[in-house]
Amino acid sequence: MQEIIITLLGSSIILVIAKVILTLVFWMAGLFGIFNFKIIVQEMIDANLPVPKLFAVATIGTQLLGSLLIITNFAGFGWLGAGWLAIFLLLTIPIGHPFWKFDEPKRTHEFHIVLEHITVVGGLMLAGILSVLSAV
Length: 136
Hints:
This is Multidrug efflux RND transporter inhibitory subunit MexG. The chain is mostly helical. The chain has one domain (2-135). The chain has helices at residues 2-9, 12-35, 37-46, 52-72, 78-96, 106-135. The chain starts with a helix and ends with a helix.
């Protein structure tokens, strides 16, 4: 059984599947943004960001290009996509999920979203490490 699991974990196909799953939330959000641009612009307005259309384009671009870099490790730049998405996620905490500003029960809800973001950052860190190791 152990040999089967080790073989699966060493498979390049399983690695690509894992990267697709890790980035699912980003490329789905990016595709949603392309087809629902006005909603993304409204999210930027709601977050009080200047030039909301520019931030909407940057958000969609970050989600799609960061995911693409992780999945393909194009030119060995999977680490860049992972870092780009990790920074993006960390920036969304004070901008979009400042749980410390809310009363209960919204505070706890937003805090759980923050914990999910931080957990995904850990996965992105692993993806960055794997991209560097596979490029060596």
